[in-house]
Amino acid sequence: MTPAATLARGLEGLGLTLPDDATRKLLAYVELLAKWNRTYNLTAIREPERMVSHHLIDSLSVLPHLPAGTLVDVGSGGGLPGIPIAIAQPGRRVTLNDSNHKKGAFMQQAAIELGLANVEVHTGRAEDWRPDARFDGAISRAFAELADFIAACRHLVKPEGFFAAMKGLYPHDEVAKVPAGVRCAEPIRLSVPLVDGDRHLVLCRVGG
Predict the structure, then answer these.
(1) Looking at the domain assignment, is residue 115 inside a domain?
(2) Total of domains in the chain
């Protein structure tokens, strides 16, 4: 299948209806990712069709479960899942964070070329970052174990905010190790069209 056909099939499988022009921007993002990947090694996946299924569709699968509000994508790498989320939800402000300067440069260029007015990029370690305003939530995809993810970005999230961790297999051990004072809901099993293997989303909040 072409990237466009793969995207159309994946969106249909997710039951998602995207804003006007979102499909074009998602495919343009994959083109940029494939182009920069040849030099910057942003992802181990090289084929644009698999980038659509394993990056775009996988990232968009969290949308029905993601609480509203401003979002910081910690350890975003090539902009995942933050850029697909920002394209699909242009009313949500998304900040992309990674400590790698080459990846930060790519994300900045992608936001400019795709015209993503709701996206900002911060390059640097999450642990050392003190933004002017905290975020409603933080999300990560293959960034770190759950407890480490929460510890690294707890100061970035409002006291009543959320932490959303994208995982593969059901993360029993990781949920058991979350810090005191953090409560995590039952991991949500994600159904990701065109992607084999288990996928889960863990939502956690401080307090309560």
Answers:
(1) yes
(2) 1
